[in-house]
Specification:
The chain is built from ten helices and twelve strands. The protein is α+β, with helices and mostly antiparallel strands.
Amino acid sequence: MAVVPARHRVGDGSAHAKVILIGEHTVAHGSAAVALPMPAMTAHARAAHASNSAAARLVPEGRPGVLRIGGPGFRPGTGPELAVVAALRRWKITGTPLTVRTDTRIPVARGLGSSAAVTAAAVHATAALVEQSLSDTDLAAFVQVGEQHSHGRPSGVDAAAAVSRGPIQFRAGVHAPIPIAGRALLLVADTGVGAGPREAVGIASARLTGQSGLQLLRSAEQLTENAITQLAQGDWTAVGRSLTAFHELLANLGVSSHILDRGVAAALEAGALGAKLTGGGLGGCLLALTDHPDTATGIRERLHHSGARHVWTLPIEGARNDH
């Protein structure tokens, strides 16, 4: 077994938020999903050897967002800790305890992949500290270890999206970049109400059983496949229709809410081509699509009037240099 080298005083890492365009919940049952990175919303981490003086400056005692990896009596108890431990084991590194500080600007419990991004940043920082190369595939696998602890049985789309640099299609544990023609704008609105991912998964899973559940899955698969084709064609009007139809499907699954439905209706009334909840549902965020900046301004104002706490604008365009 190797011992952690002490040449570097610190290692830095970062990762971004994500938004699911279409495919929530049904992706866990084998259907496809489309996810987009939100590069302007990031999580950062910095790792140091616990014995270094840099570690004391890095993570003052009692500071939140501090991981202490290794040392006497250490047992990983959080998603990021489990992911870092899995990475160190893969690299056959043991010995010096590590300290990792994490910071995030990504709102938690909003369906934006906050936990996956924090975990990815922590693994990135550790890899930089101990001088290990880290492929996107390996990083996603380590993040998934953390997500399994945090969310039970996640589909893996958050882990994949946290390491992707462009729009991806995700299905059955495999992700790949997708072609997109033209450009549009996606407004992502935070309702201010925390999402309930575990509760939502239970509700959706219960309704995706039996013959009626199979029909819903088939409908979801068709809508998602349609959206993927429409993105490749740059047919934003059709993409919008697919998104709105998927929101109605999610509402039938029982994972929407009054505040989400109200926001979706407000966005559509303001001229959005389509709108839907994003993420687990029962709160969290919703998204609205437009292909015109002037319309985006009106949608943003209407979303704020309907109760949205924050509204972010995300350009949608083809993937560039994803791998």
